[in-house]
Amino acid sequence: MPKKNPLVRVEGSNALYRTETGAIVNTDNASFNAYIKKRNSRQLQSEQITSLSSQLLEAKNEIEELKELVKQALEIKGG
Questions:
Q1: Contacting residues for 47 by C-beta, under 8 A, at least 6 apart
Q2: What pLDDT is recorded for position 40?
Q3: What are phi and psi of 55, to 5 degrees?
Q4: What distance lies between CA 77 and its chain's CA centroid?
Q5: Where do runs of H (alpha helix) occur along the chain?
Q6: Where are the domains positioned within the chain?
Q7: Which H/E stretch holds residue 18?
Q8: What's the pTM value of the predicted model, to 2 decimals?
Q9: Do residues 7 and 17 make contact, with C-beta atoms less than 8 angstroms apart?
Q10: Which residue among 16, 30, 72, 79 is buried most deeply as judged by most CB within 10 Å?
């Protein structure tokens, strides 16, 4: 007796199959790898934005600190 295939092809797709439990399985490895690459790229971009935001905030705080020091120096000089 031939073994029954537990995967049934989803209509309209050559790479999507439905399991006996109803889960959808994608057998297109190239698409999956492209998705993973794109996801990792978005995550890296998000981390870079977070890092740049932190650096910008730090620079802004340092500028404010320098402005205060200049004001203090001018007050002492003007006295």
A1: none
A2: 98
A3: -65, -40
A4: 51
A5: 29-78
A6: 29-79
A7: strand 16-18
A8: 0.62
A9: yes
A10: 16
Cα separation, 39 vs 54, in Å, equals 23
* Tokens 């537990």, located at residue: 6
Task: Walk along the chain (79 residues) and give the pLDDT tens digit of each residue.
Answer: 666 778 999 999 989 999 999 999 999 999 999 999 999 999 999 999 999 999 999 999 999 999 999 999 999 988 6
For residue 16, list its beta bridge partners.
26
User: Are the CB atoms for 7 and 18 separated by under 8 Å?
Assistant: yes
Q: Tokens 């309209």 sit at which residue?
A: 12
Q: What is the pLDDT of residue 77?
A: 87
Pair type for strands 16-18 and 8-9: antiparallel
Residues 6+ apart with CB under 8 A from 25: 7, 16, 17, 18, 19
